[in-house]
Batch of 3 targets.
Target 1
Amino acid sequence: MKTVGCRKLFNECRSAFSAVTVSAYQRISVSAFQRFRGSLIVARPMSLVPLLVFLLLSLSGCATQLPYLQRLRPLPSGDHLCRVAVLPFTSESDYPESAAIATKVITAQLNTLGNYIVTQEGDVDKLYLQLRILPGDSPSREQLQILANRLNAQLLFTGHVIEMRENKIPNSGTNPVLALRVDILDGQSADILWTVYHRRQGLDYQKVMHFGIINSMAGLVQQVSHEILTLSFKKGLPQCDVLPQF
């Protein structure tokens, strides 16, 4: 019953915030909003909508086993969306290399699950240096458009690590916890098209997986990323179905 109630709350929040204005944001608690402000890629009002929904769900105590996916804009038209780039994630976690871990795992998952032609990490890093984008900083809209153009990427994938930590369990090792947001951007306009939020911990899988809980951060990041992309494909994100042309 709780899951049904939370899903209803999520849908109501999504509808309520679809026409929200900047003045309405100002009524949100500053301390609560501060947590999410750093995760924005491009500071514009509509990009706040999914974050505020996730915030309200967190404050209400609602939890779900499925990712929350927000379609902010339609995907670009075209028969095939095959060339994509994964930009460095940002992070507010103290976990070592949290942003790099998320970036590498999403890249690997896109190659495996979506059959995409993913640009090389070295090419992305080189462009970040040329554009003087510092580690941990988010590119501006203009920089995002330049990155997509030079990488010849139709879609850009990036995101933010909201939480990544390992809790000690007496006599049982560790319980990893991860909250991750993945953003899908249009390469031409640099607009956020879809954004997906997911939070899981190793103990969530105790009754699901036959081999028990996930007790490593590497395993949890793999699983969370897999669930995010699987839902995205189910909701309409196209998988590349053509062979690369060389």
Target 2
Amino acid sequence: MLIFVKLKYINMATQTDIHKRVHSIATQLESGRTNSEIIKDCTEQWGISSCTVERYMALAKKILFQKMEGESINNEAKQLIEIIKKSGLQMRNPELKQVLNGFQKSAI
């Protein structure tokens, strides 16, 4: 005897959905929204648990930290380039001049 059971369809987020959600949360964090505001809005909008939103928020914070870290390194590198230019070192060393020119193009 066969028994058929009707399974309830569970709406699982795709990787693309998760990516969009995490970046949406990152944008909201950058704009100064509080964690509780974000959790409330996301649970309502996406129909997910607050625990899931907190996991997304942890990923969003990691992205923001990496972004800030990259901007900091880039700013430090630009300052170093200016110091080298002012000192005239790149004029005496063609290899250094070539490296600096390449970095400036990639940093822009």
Target 3
Amino acid sequence: MGWNWLGLTAVVVVVVAGVGMAPGGQHAATQPATQPGTQPAVQGGAGGAVQKEAERMTYKDPSYGFSMGVPKLGGAGKERAVAVLFAGPPENATAPNINVLVDPGETTLEGYVAPAVAGLKDAKMIGQKVMEVSGRPAELLEYERTANGRTVHILQLVVVGEGLTYVVTCTCAADTFGSHEAEFRRSLESFRLPAKGG
């Protein structure tokens, strides 16, 4: 079964501290909640919080038809956090997924990747490739590891930016990797950072 973008759901995770380099809808379609040139609505919540609708994005799920206003959760955190997670229906008890982890702090590519790889003692390393993404140092890792009797295949892109390291992880059951590989690689190839200083 191939990577079914129509069957995926996008999940926005506010903060998941302590997530490391371990394995972990349709591409989330977001748009401003109000049309340009219209007056944004202001609503008060139970706690008295007020948020302009123009500051919200709308996620529309193409598989199930629901939509939901997602608040602008704002600001860069000071701890490692999963910024976004895309997950499909489970296959062999493992949901194929792509997540983006953002890790604040100054580092180098080698300073970030070397200890992470050293910590993957139980993993079968398949490949490592140093590259550039948006003019920043990056490395693509590919490995398999087994946890709870299930083997997962992981493609992981590490990009070191200015004060932030981005870790994009694609995970699926090892025996389904062949049907997901092309989409995983396309997703990783599409990852971009804003222009330096922008």
